C-alpha cells in the first residue's frame, strides 16, 4: 500500500489505475479490487468485530476505518470500498431494522402502504456524521488509493423493506410493483432520494468513485426492469453524475439487463460470472466493465484459478476500461492467501 506521507495529493489519486480504467483511459496494469473484500474471510476483521453488532460497527469511525483498510493492507488492491451496508442509511433515518448474523437485514415492520412510505424520513448529512468522519479519515490514510463509496439501488433496498428480510423470489416486492403502482412509485422515489443523498455525503467527504448495488434486480424481466426499476436507478445515477465521480452499477443474474443498467447512467457496469465477459462487454456497448471471476474459483487449485483469471483479463482488453473483480462478493470461507495470489497475478500478468 502507498503510504499517505509519500502520496495523497489529488493528482496521484486521479491518475490511479482504478480511476483511469473507470474513465476508459489507458492503464499501467489492470486494477483489481473485490466486492466484500472487507469482512468475514479476514481473521483481522473477525477479531475487531468480536462482540460488536454489524450496524454498530458501521457507526464507529475507528472501526469503519480499520476494517476498510484491512484488505488494502493485506492485498494491495487498487481501491478500497467503504465499510458499511446498503441498509445503513435506512437505519440512520430511523427505520427499525437490524442485520442478523448469518441471515442479513431484517426489518421490524415491513412496508405495505403509502403511509408506511411517507413515514420514512429523507436523509441528510446530519443523520450520518460518522460517515463523513470515517470517509475523511480514510481518504487521508489511503493517500493514492481511491475510496469507493456505495449505496443500495432502489429495487434491492425495496426488497428488504417490503419482504422484511432476505428473499429468493421477491414475491411481496413484485406484488407491490405490479399491484400497487402508486405505493411502489412512492417507495422507489423515497429510496432513490435516500441513496442519492447518502452517496452525496460520501463524495462530499472525499470518496472518488461510487458503486450502486442492485444485487437483486436480476429478478426482473427487461420490460419490467425498464418500467418499474430503471427510472429510479437512473434518478440515483444522475444525481451521482452531478458529483463528478465515476459510477459503477452492479447486480447479480443481470445478464439480460446489462445494456439497460448501462443506459440507466453507469460509467462502469459490473458483470457477474454467469455472463462471459466478452458478451458482457458487447451488451454494455462502449462502457467500461467490472468483473467477473466466479467467486468459487478461490476454492480450486491456485493454478486453475489463475488460468481462469487470465481468461477474464484477456476478454477485458476488448472493453474501453476493465476493472478486475469477482462476479459477486468474496465468500466468507475464502482463504485470503488465494486473494493475495490473485491480486499479485492480475497486476503482473496485465502489466506484461
Ligand atoms: C445485498 C447487499 C447487502 N449489503 C450489501 C449488499 C450488496 C452487495 C452484494 O450483493 O453482496 C453491500 C455491502 N455490505 C457490506 C459491504 C462492505 C464493503 C465490502 O464490500 O467489503 C458492502 C458493499 C458489509 C457487510 N454486510 C453484511 C456483512 C456480514 C455481517 C457480519 O460480518 O457480521 C458484511 C461484512 C451483512 C449483510 N448485508 C446484506 C447481506 C445480504 C448480508 C449478509 C448476510 C450474512 O450472510 O450474514 C445486504
UniProtKB/TrEMBL annotation:
Pathway: Porphyrin-containing compound metabolism; protoporphyrin-IX biosynthesis; coproporphyrinogen-III from 5-aminolevulinate: step 4/4. GO terms for biological process: protoporphyrinogen IX biosynthetic process. Substrate binds at residues 36-40, 85, 160, 215, 328. Keywords: Cytoplasm, Decarboxylase, Lyase, Porphyrin biosynthesis. GO terms for molecular function: uroporphyrinogen decarboxylase activity. Pfam families: URO-D. Residues 31-40, 148-164 form the Uroporphyrinogen decarboxylase (URO-D) domain. Its EC number is 4.1.1.37. One of its GO terms (cellular component) is cytosol. PROSITE patterns: UROD_1 (PS00906), UROD_2 (PS00907). It is found in: Cytoplasm. Belongs to the uroporphyrinogen decarboxylase family. Homodimer. Catalyzes the decarboxylation of four acetate groups of uroporphyrinogen-III to yield coproporphyrinogen-III. This is Uroporphyrinogen decarboxylase. It comes from Nocardioides iriomotensis. The gene is hemE.
